[in-house]
Design brief:
five-stranded antiparallel beta sheet, 18% strand, 5 strands, globular, 199 residues, 2 domains, alpha+beta
Length: 199
């Protein structure tokens, strides 16, 4: 019997508490649960500020950023300079055809023109050589010390099928070596020898 008494007291206390909370306008535990469930249900609905849905509202900053990005023009990619190409490609595709056509425009015939690797005439030493034979058995050798167009260069000339006897430095004072400069200086040297042009 003593065990039942405390539970009755607890029940009466609980009833008094419920009655007091009703009189002062506090929600009962069931009402609290209902409100909480409504709050949970509301929070589960997607917010219009979230970017997950297609109908979402975008931040007003986004369009300005996109406009700024689209206003910046893209720089066109510059093709590499002819002189920056690999040595053999530069000589075979640009220097040799340019030299040949320039010499022929001056009225001389080019019998043979080619790039080769070998010993430099007269002084020896391996180098890369643009060898050219013109009409009347006139020949010249444009020699590059290394497989680079900016390396030290020499030019040798020979007439009437004779061997060259003089080695001359070529383009030693120029800071920059270009295709146009190489061709013009070879033509200048050949003209000085009276091999091309009206003499």
């Amino acid at each position: 019997m003593e065990n039942k008494k405390p539970t009755r007291e607890f029940d009466t206390i609980n009833k008094v508490t419920n009655a007091e909370s009703a009189s002062i306008g506090c929600p009962e535990p069931d009402q609290v649960k209902n409100k909480d469930s409504k709050l949970i249900a509301k929070s589960e609905t997607p917010s219009p500020l979230k970017n997950n849905s297609k109908n979402s509202i975008k931040s007003p900053i986004e369009p300005d950023i996109k406009k700024e990005v689209s206003k910046i023009p893209k720089k066109p990619v510059k093709p590499p300079k002819i002189e920056d190409k690999p040595f053999e490609e530069f000589v075979d595709k640009h220097l040799i055809p340019g030299l040949k056509s320039s010499i022929e425009e001056k009225g001389s015939t080019v019998n043979d023109i080619k790039l080769m690797e070998g010993k430099r005439p007269v002084v020896g030493g391996n180098c890369w050589i643009v060898f050219c034979e013109l009409s009347d058995q006139r020949r010249f050798w444009l020699c590059f010390n290394k497989q680079v167009i900016t390396s030290d260069k020499t030019i040798l000339l020979a007439e009437s099928n004779s061997e060259p006897s003089i080695v001359e430095s070529f383009l030693i004072d120029e800071k920059k070596t270009t295709l146009a400069l190489l061709i013009s200086r070879v033509l200048q040297r050949l003209n000085g020898q009276k091999w091309i042009g009206v003499n």
